[in-house]
Design goal:
Keywords: Membrane, Transmembrane, Transmembrane helix
Protein name: CHASE2 domain-containing protein
Mean pLDDT: 87
Strand content: 15-25%
Radius of gyration: 27 Å
Order of helices and strands: HHHEHEHEEEEEEEHHEEHHEEEHEHHEHH
Number of helices: 14
Shape: elongated
Organism: Shiella aurantiaca
Distance between the termini: 39 Å
Structural class: alpha/beta
């Protein structure tokens, strides 16, 4: 049986046909807008989301080196006063996830510039703009206004999200540690802050050389939040103004300021994202994490050197082809020897195999912090059974003289 040359040739050509068919179907459905509601509900769910939301909510220890501060609805004068108060307690780094790209009144701008000048390591947000899909790069960086630049180090606050519109289903799982724009290298906001706090660990992180990194989320900031226990200490607007904290909370720490609602616990959707920690990972629900807390999770990942490694695109394609070929090979044996059982047996095998692959992906991710990208492989398994019937019933006959003769003479 295994010496049958036609078996090996058919398995290889049929596997190639499966991948060609998958590519065609993928191109077709990319432009079918009628499927958008389905895509919103389940198309942006990954196995790793289940691991984060169901298995890891109690595991990570709180990260006390990063202190979150809510700026609420304060204007620049209010933010400046917060910075002055916090700076009295000798933080190692202060960063702020807020945009200061436009001038306000001279009084507000000068007040904030003066507050920035007092801080030894002050980081504020910039923004990568003008993305070009052809070059996979950005054309410009929006920077803070000129009066602030002498006193701060900018870091871009962009995330890699699945949508640009806040009203759309917008999930953050990954980020770019740095990006080159017009020949100049720019660091992400969280990476810049981590670098100023611990340059050795940050350099080891950057030495991984990944253009995109998966965020290894440890949790949210508020104990009252329904998406997990508190993993970062957080101060509200009035906590800072009233100095309602012990000095040790701030001294030598990273203080990360940003919008977390008008008050801590505010259900506002402003600057808020869906993350893998969201307990309702399938179907539209409320976003669970403010952007500033996403930055805090990135900083924690760098300081703890607890990264997530990801299967490369090449490894994913090779693995998918091997999975597809193995299924095709044994499906051909079933097709030839158990024809009456073919449809039922192949469907059962495909279902069991897909479930086992999903379980494997979850176990490997949870145990080894390694993300197996086996989506193409699962698709190859799912397409194998029916595609093989098309291969034998249509493709192979079209390439045989006897088959073509039978088809074209059918009405004669």
């Amino acid at each position: 049986m295994f010496k049958d040359k036609s078996l090996w040739l058919d398995s290889i050509f049929a596997t190639l046909f499966v991948f060609l068919l998958m590519f065609g179907v993928q191109q077709l459905f990319v432009s079918v807008d009628v499927l958008d509601p389905i895509g919103d509900a389940v198309g942006d769910v990954e196995v790793t989301d289940v691991v984060f939301s169901q298995l890891r909510t109690q595991d990570p220890v709180p990260e006390e080196r990063v202190v979150l501060v809510n700026i609420g609805d304060l204007n620049r004068a209010g933010i400046a006063e917060q910075i002055r108060i916090l700076n009295k307690y000798s933080p190692k780094v202060i960063g702020i996830d807020a945009r200061f790209f436009k001038h306000k009144s001279p009084e507000l701008d000068s007040s904030l510039a003066e507050a920035f000048s007092r801080v030894e390591n002050m980081v504020i947000a910039s923004k990568l703009e003008g993305y070009d899909s052809l070059t996979d790069g950005f054309g410009n960086v929006a920077m803070p206004i000129e009066p602030f630049l002498p006193h701060v180090k900018p870091g871009f606050a962009n995330f890699i999200a699945t949508a640009e519109d806040q009203d759309q289903f917008k999930v953050v799982r990954t980020f770019s540690p740095s990006d080159e724009v017009k020949g100049e290298r720019h660091m992400a906001l969280a990476v810049m802050m981590a670098h100023l706090y611990d340059s050795a660990k940050t350099e080891r992180f950057l030495a991984r050389g990944n253009d995109v990194e998966v965020v290894n989320f440890i949790g949210n900031a508020l104990a009252s939040n329904s998406y997990g226990n508190a993993k970062f200490p957080a101060l509200d607007v009035e906590d800072v103004f009233n100095e309602n904290f012990v000095p040790e909370l701030i001294e030598g720490k990273i203080v990360l300021m940003g919008y977390m609602g008008s008050y801590l616990g505010d259900p506002s959707w402003d600057d808020k994202f869906f993350t893998p920690l969201n307990t309702q990972y399938a179907g539209r629900t409320n976003p669970d994490m403010f952007g500033v807390i996403v930055h805090a999770n990135i900083i924690a990942m760098i300081l703890n050197e607890n990264y997530i490694d990801t299967m490369s695109d090449l490894a994913e394609i090779i693995t998918a082809f091997i999975l597809g070929w193995i299924n095709i090979f044994f499906f051909i044996l079933i097709y030839r020897n158990l024809g009456r059982w073919y449809d039922g047996l192949t469907k059962v095998i495909q279902l069991v195999e897909a479930i086992l692959i999903l379980v494997l992906m979850g176990v490997v991710f949870n145990t080894f912090d390694y993300k197996l990208n086996l989506g193409i492989g699962i698709a190859a398994v799912a397409f194998a059974g029916d595609s093989l019937e098309i291969y034998f019933g249509v493709v192979k006959n079209l390439f045989s003289a006897e088959g073509r003769k039978e088809l074209f003479n059918i009405n004669r």
